């Protein structure tokens, strides 16, 4: 049992997925609970909702197709984001991070700068945000 003031940090396995169930699916943390160290959980939940709603609206009398198309998009996206979150967790709780947090943040900022240079939009590449939280 956790000491007073301690809160467990739960996560599903990176790449978690399930066999198709006609007309039934999950979105958000229920589908891909990850550590907060990529800053993507809420963003992913909103993307899930938008993607699923768009698919259902396209063929509202058939939920099997929309659910399958949504899951085909959501599973790889969630795996990518969960991997980033797991890396972030490792990074910010490693012995090296505790020894030199400035170096860790400098490295993260350099990655953001590099991604921004590549996307040509001044650092608005979502992948850059995903990596740094
Ligand atoms: C410390 C921390 C920092 C975070 N920082 C970020 C961040 O910077 N950026 C980001 O994008 N994400 C962040 N997240 C993740 C983000 O908060 C979650 O990914 C997001 O809230 C998931 O939304 P959701 O709607 O799927 O689930 P939730 O927000 O958990 O919503 C589920 C809702 O269902 C309700 N509920 C549960 N069981 C029942 C029931 N039986 N009947 C009725 N209602 C029920 C719950 O009370 C809750 O209101 C962070 C998370 C944590 C813990």
Task: Provide a quick synopsis of the model.
The chain is mainly alpha-helical and 133 residues long. It contains six helices and no strands.
Task: Give an account of the 3D structure.
- There is one protein chain.
- The protein has 133 residues and is mostly helical.
- It folds into 2 domains: 20-85; 94-133.
- 62% of the residues lie in helices and 0% in strands.
- The protein is built from 6 helices and no strands.
- Helix 2 packs antiparallel against helix 3 (64-93) and helix 5 (101-119) runs antiparallel to helix 6.
- The site of flavin-adenine dinucleotide has 10 residues, from helix 1 and helix 2.
Give the SSE layout:
Blueprint: H1 29-32, H2 41-58, H3 64-93, H4 95-99, H5 101-119, H6 126-132
Helix pairs in contact: 2-3, 5-6
Keywords: FAD, Flavoprotein, Monooxygenase, Oxidoreductase
GO molecular function: monooxygenase activity
InterPro entries: FAD-bd (IPR002938), FAD/NAD-bd_sf (IPR036188)
